Task: inverse folding
């Protein structure tokens, strides 16, 4: 098995992992602070991609379109929190699941009405085309390398905000004891709305980065949402560092499993058996990993310490 191929697939796993982290960070903040189960988080991932496609087409500039699309996603998230979710904080999780599932149906139909059901293409600009040289003649797509860089930069910025700023102090305090910070005069409703908007923008950024790699289409958020829940369970519910570690683990395990499990099974099984078992086992790997983590560490690898 060539070392360059292993390296390329490892980088693909990291790239997938940072996209999962952007989704998981927003979702774990919302759950950790608001105690809200938001199944519609994947819809915000989808809306971020669609709004960015529209903004890029309208502005004619990729970077300006991305900025406008993410800002629109942030505003959309805040609007959804005020209109649809604010009344759910004191309800049980079943009510939250049913309400946010309804939002999934709403956003899927809204996208179909506005943009149709045909997949759209979020084209990369010329300066994001091409490859970068790794070593020994190995090359890696420039766009995927940029996705890794942006994801790691956002992760570092989010860590700094949560651990080193007054806003982060309020977020961590809200995750630990929301009643106390409300009693101290903090506008808890405004904090909730802002945090939800930031979570929506992070999900939208993941959708924007996924657009040129995958298809921008209705329902694109549902599949990745399942993987994001796996990330949160593995990393630790409500933990940002847990979301980061869990996302990288899930991204690498899923990517390497899909790339190499079938050939490895082919060394001990017949080609027909490897062809049948390889893809099935590869798709199960992250769920087996989640089961193992739950058995050994039910609170996740990095349990929440006030949102950190």
Result:
């Amino acid at each position: 098995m060539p070392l360059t191929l292993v390296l390329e697939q490892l980088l693909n796993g990291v790239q997938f992992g940072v996209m999962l982290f952007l989704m998981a960070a927003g979702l774990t903040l919302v759950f950790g602070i608001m105690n809200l189960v938001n199944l519609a988080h994947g819809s915000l991932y989808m809306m971020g991609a669609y709004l960015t496609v529209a903004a890029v087409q309208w502005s004619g500039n990729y970077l300006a379109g991305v900025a406008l699309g993410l800002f629109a996603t942030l505003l959309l998230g805040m609007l959804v929190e005020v209109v649809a979710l604010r009344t759910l904080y004191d309800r049980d999780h079943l009510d939250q699941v049913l309400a946010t599932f309804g939002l999934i149906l709403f956003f899927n139909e809204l996208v179909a009405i506005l943009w149709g059901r045909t997949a759209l293409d979020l084209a990369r600009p010329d300066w994001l085309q091409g490859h970068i040289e790794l070593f020994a003649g190995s090359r890696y797509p420039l766009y995927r390398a940029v996705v890794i860089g942006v994801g790691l930069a956002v992760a570092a910025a989010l860590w700094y905000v949560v651990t080193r700023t007054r806003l982060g102090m309020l977020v961590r305090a809200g995750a630990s004891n929301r009643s106390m910070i409300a009693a101290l005069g903090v506008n808890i409703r405004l904090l909730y709305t802002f945090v939800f908007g930031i979570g929506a923008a992070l999900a939208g950024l993941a959708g924007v980065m996924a657009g040129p790699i995958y298809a921008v289409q209705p329902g694109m958020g549902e599949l990745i949402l399942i993987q994001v829940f796996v990330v949160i369970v593995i990393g630790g519910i409500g933990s940002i560092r847990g979301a980061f570690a869990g996302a990288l683990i899930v991204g690498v395990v899923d990517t390497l499993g899909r790339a190499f499990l079938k050939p490895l099974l082919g060394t001990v099984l017949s080609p027909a058996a490897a062809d049948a078992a390889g893809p099935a086992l590869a798709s199960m790997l992250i769920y087996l990993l989640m089961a193992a983590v739950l058995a050994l560490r039910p609170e996740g690898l990095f349990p929440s310490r006030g949102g950190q």
